[in-house]
Design a protein that fits this description.
This protein is mostly helical. The protein has a single domain, classed as Growth Hormone, Chain: A (Up-down Bundle), CATH 1.20.1250.20. The chain is 79% helix and 0% strand. The protein contains 18 helices and no strands.
């Protein structure tokens, strides 16, 4: 019995010693807990929360969805030359070419202008809302276009309505790709831009055939069903990865505090002021120089086919040469081409020019977003940077087509248009060169 009591006393003493050790080692004060949480918070911030996978099934599925969205945005916008030629010969024959061109200009302007809203909203976590709303609005406005009869109705339904819908789709569809790619971001932006070229090749030919076979009304309605199918595919396939950006502004002029970004945006605006004269007036130019209407529609498809090469090949090598370098090179070649456009006077010359110009000008659409995104500090700022860039350049796009239309001579001469367009592109290249100088000095590398 005595031995059992002694063992009990020893066990109790051992437990007391162990308890005291646990208290001395494990017990922490509130101040200690606060310090530990602060240290843990700092450690978590040492880890980049915006690390991207640069691949995987989910990422490439998102690229496919963005590609389909791109078809409905600039792919449809690139077909306006078909609408313009059809309107001038039919419903809007009483209107001047300058007035008709305002429909396409408003559409292109709003694609970019609405980007200042849709880009930050995408960063804030409303990607699906934007794609769904944009798709439904696009479908509705094309249906309204099909039953329009007056100039103001086309201006509202196709110019304003379709432009708003495309603006809700375009910037988010591009910005979401930055959630999945960093090293190959320029490449996937090129694939996204290629959707516009594919749409620009197929849709003009399809529309021309539809207008001949089923008429304008059902031709536009069939286009509306194609659009809703493409947007629906993008809605399902595209996903976001990053948490919503809190406290962001829709219009945040603070991005212009960096001079390299400001110079790049100015350059993009002046380039856009003249770059798309052959796209806007290429069909009319061809028919004025004796080309049949059917072949003139194919010339627009040839230009867009050339832009497919221009939008994908530079982006495939941009990781080696840099997106800004390739952008400057492509815009310089585009300016040279614009200066000699008026020399293409027969069918062969026009078709060769359209193909070559599509190649050199196509890089503008794909390399510009990649160059802009490379200036963002974090990937979840991509939508804001793209949105502000598109917002700023949209005003150049708004007046580009009407100015070009007004410069076409009464005798059909395009010399003044060529000189104006080429010179504005050269001015834009100068701003881009200044931007490149600042970026190169900061990054200490030529690959920018």
């Amino acid at each position: 019995m005595m031995e059992m009591k002694q063992e009990s006393i020893l066990l109790t003493a051992a437990e007391n010693v162990a308890f005291k050790r646990n208290v001395s080692t494990d017990f922490t004060t509130p101040e200690d807990n606060a310090n530990a949480q602060a240290n843990d918070h700092e450690e978590r911030h040492d880890i980049d929360p915006f690390e991207v996978p640069d691949g995987g099934a989910r990422a490439w599925l998102c690229v496919f969805g963005g590609f389909m969205i791109s078809i409905t945005c600039y792919g449809v916008a690139n077909t306006f030359g078909v609408f313009e030629d059809f309107y001038s010969a039919n419903q809007l024959s009483a209107q001047s070419l300058n007035n008709i061109s305002w429909i396409g200009s408003l559409q292109l302007c709003l694609i970019l202008l609405v980007g200042c809203v849709s880009g930050p909203l995408c960063d804030a976590g409303y990607f699906k809302h934007l794609i769904g709303t944009g798709g439904l609005l696009f479908f509705f406005c094309l249906m309204m276009t099909s039953i329009s009869t007056e100039y103001y109705q086309y201006l509202l339904s196709q110019g304003v309505g379709v432009g708003l819908a495309q603006g809700l789709l375009f910037t988010p569809g591009m910005a979401v790709l930055a959630h999945h790619f960093k090293h190959y971001r320029t490449l996937v932006f090129g694939i996204f831009a290629a959707g516009a070229s594919i749409g620009g090749v197929i849709l003009p030919i399809a529309l021309q055939r539809l207008f001949d076979e089923v008429g304008f009304v059902w031709g536009v309605r069939i286009l509306a069903f194609i659009v809703i199918a493409c947007v629906g595919t993008g809605f399902v396939c595209c996903t976001t990865r990053f948490p919503p950006r809190k406290g962001g502004r829709v219009l945040d002029i603070r991005v212009f505090r960096t001079p390299e970004y400001t110079l790049l945006v100015l350059g993009a605006g002046f380039v856009g002021l003249g770059l798309y004269a052959p796209l806007n007036f290429g069909v009319v130019y061809a028919t004025n120089h004796g080309m049949s209407q059917r072949l003139a529609f194919y010339s627009l498809a040839i230009l867009n086919a050339g832009s497919l090469v221009g939008r994908t090949l530079p982006n495939a090598i941009a990781t080696v040469f840099g997106p800004l370098n390739l952008l400057i090179m492509a815009c310089t070649l585009s300016a040279v081409s614009l200066y000699v456009w008026f020399e293409a006077r027969d069918n062969a010359g026009i078709l060769v020019f359209e193909a070559l110009y599509g190649i050199v000008s196509g890089a503008y659409v794909s390399c510009l977003p990649a160059a802009t995104a490379s200036l963002a500090k974090n990937a979840n700022e991509t939508g804001l940077r793209l949105g502000m860039m598109f917002f700023s350049t949209s005003f150049f796009w708004l007046v580009s087509s009407p100015i070009q239309g007004a410069l076409i001579g009464t005798d059909g001469s395009y010399l003044t248009v060529c000189m104006f367009s080429g010179s504005t592109v050269v001015l834009g290249v100068c701003f881009m060169l200044f931007s490149r100088f600042l970026v190169r000095r900061e990054k200490a590398t030529w690959n920018v």
